[in-house]
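Weekly structure sync - notes
Attendees: PM, LS, DV (DV joined late)
Agenda: review two folding runs queued last week.

Item 1: First target. Sequence and C-alpha cells pasted below for the record.
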Amino acid sequence: MNRRLAWSVHTTSLLVAGSGIALAWCVYLRTPADPEALVDPLQGLLQHAHVLAAPLSTLALGAAWAMHAWPKWRGGERQARASGLTLIGLSLPMILSGYLLQIASSLEARAAWSLVHTWGSLAWTAVALLHVARARRWFARAAPDSTVETP
C-alpha cells in the first residue's frame, strides 16, 4: 500500500473510531450533568463528527480495496491475508449498519442496528490494528536494515 493511501485509511479510520468510541462513551456511560436533559450536550457534536467522517473512511476503504487488497488477492500474496479478509468481511456490516442506523424508523430497529454497528465496528477496529501490526512485523523481518520503509 503506498504511503498516501495508508495515510488516508489510517487517518480516516482513526477519526471514525475515535468519534465512535467517544460517542459510545457519551451515550452509554456518561450521564448528562443537567438532570432535565435527555442526552449529553456532547452527543450531537460527536454524532455529527462521526457521521461526517464515516463517508471519508468508506471512500478510503474502497480505494484500499481497489489499490491494495484486490491486487494482493489476485497476485496470491499470503502475508496478512487472514486479517485482510476478516477486515473486508467486517467492513460490510459495519458500513451498512451505520447507514441503516440513520434511517431506522422504529426504536427496536434502531437498537438492533446500533448493536450490530457498535460490535461490528469494535471488531473491525481490533482486526485493523492487528492487520497493521502484522504487516509491520513482517516488513521488519523481511528487511532488517533500516533503509527499507515500512507501510
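Item 2: Second target, run right after the first with the same settings.
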Amino acid sequence: MNILGETYNTTNLIVPTNEGVTAAIVAFVFVCLVFPSLVKNRQQYYAALGAILIVIFLHALGLMIKAAGFIVFEGFITAILQIGAIVMLVLCVGGLTVRDFADDMIEVVRRGEHEKEVIIPLPPHLQAQKEARVAEKDDAPRERINLTPDVPPEKPSIPLE
C-alpha cells in the first residue's frame, strides 16, 4: 500500500545474481591490472572486462526495473556472461586461443584415460632416434645380473627341531 492507499499486486521472485562470483572476477581483473605480466592475450582480457561491465550494468537495470520477467532474464544473462568472463580470463592468463582450448577439450574427451598423455611432443627427428633406440634394446639379448651371490645358507641360531 502506498501513500494514496493504493495496493499493489506484487510477486516475490528470488533469482540468484551470483554477486560473489562477480566480485571474484572483478578482483582478478584488478590483479591483472596490478600485474600486467599475467595477461598473455589482451583481447581476451578486454572481452572479460566488457562482460563483467555488462553484468554490473544489468544488475543496475534490474534494481530499477522490478518486472519479474526482466529479473529472470537478467539472472540468465548474468550467468552466461560470468561463465564467459571466467573462461576468457583463464585463456588470457594461460595464453591459449579459443581454438586451442576447444581442441584440447575435444582431445581429452575423445581419448579419456586410455592413452598415455604426451606432455611435450618430440620433433620428428628426435622421435625417430627414440624409436631406433627402443628397437635396438628389444633386439639385444638381455643379460641377467645376479645380485645375490651363491652363498650357502647359514644355520639358524635357534634350532627349529
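Discussion on item 2: The chain has five helices and no strands.
Action: LS to circulate a short write-up before next sync.
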